[in-house]
């Protein structure tokens, strides 16, 4: 099988590339290396075709899609810092880029998986969140919500193309996927904490640390994506993919220190010290993963301790 992965040098994309290469498939990666890294795929030299390019390049994406049997659309501008600092570029990548990829897949009738996000749900306080729950987001002038809005448009395009042109698409809403190769550079909390702990530097918590999340190991997320790509019964639908075991950010910091054997201290700071005025964090976000369990028999296998150990290289 010929597999085309957008964002193939990124965190999740590179792990998907590993899977399909190891399974004996022909893999092509497209990445502009804005957030992806050549280090992530250095071990795949000679085993994949890597194209340095942008998903907004219509002709390039059309050709790569035409030559593929399966398209995995993982490319996105992501991370709180990226969204807040470069909102126009982020929206262009996430909306225009996704439109290009989706229309190419529809034109050539290619099986496609798109990576969406738990940010879709915004600040909906219902927990756990299932796939039919409403979006609750802030006002348009609050730049913080542009990522959620852009990914919602991407999902809407996918559903519309499935309805009108029978595009064989499955949407995966990822909840806080973490693991090796993820960087803390874009505001990702787990690698940021681990990197600080390994240097015995303070672990800085924004806010009071009572906000909670559920983290999912990238290996588990890859297993889910691969299974959905191979299962046509998931076409035209959307699935939450996330872990189990809700944890507060304070508890996360404490676990990181314990597992790494760090001498780091935990410090607290206001959001205003890290982000522009008006930034809103989500107090709690927990996925309902019963739908994906029912559809493909998937469940996460790695707990937070394993995630932290793997990121730390222990």
Describe this structure as you would to a colleague.
- By secondary structure, the protein is an alpha/beta fold.
- It has a domain at 2-175 and 218-241 and 284-300: NAD(P)-binding Rossmann-like Domain (Rossmann fold, 3-Layer(aba) Sandwich), CATH 3.40.50.
- 39% of the residues lie in helices and 17% in strands.
- It contains 11 helices and 13 strands.
- It has a 7-stranded parallel β-sheet, sandwiched between helices. A two-stranded parallel sheet has the order 7-10.
- Strand 2, helix 2 (38-41) and strand 3 (49-52) form a beta-alpha-beta unit.
- The chain is globular.
Strand content: 15-25%
Spatial ordering of strands, largest sheet? 3-2-1-4-5-6-11
Terminus-to-terminus distance: 35 Å
At the third CATH level, what is the topology name of the domain at 2-175 and 218-241 and 284-300?
A: Rossmann fold
Spans of at least 5 consecutive residues whose pLDDT stays below 50 are: none
Annotation field: number of helices: 11
The overall strand count is 13
Tell me what the CATH architecture of the domain at 2-175 and 218-241 and 284-300 is. Answer: 3-Layer(aba) Sandwich
Mean of all residue-level pLDDT scores: 95
Cα-atom Rg, whole angstroms?
A: 19 Å
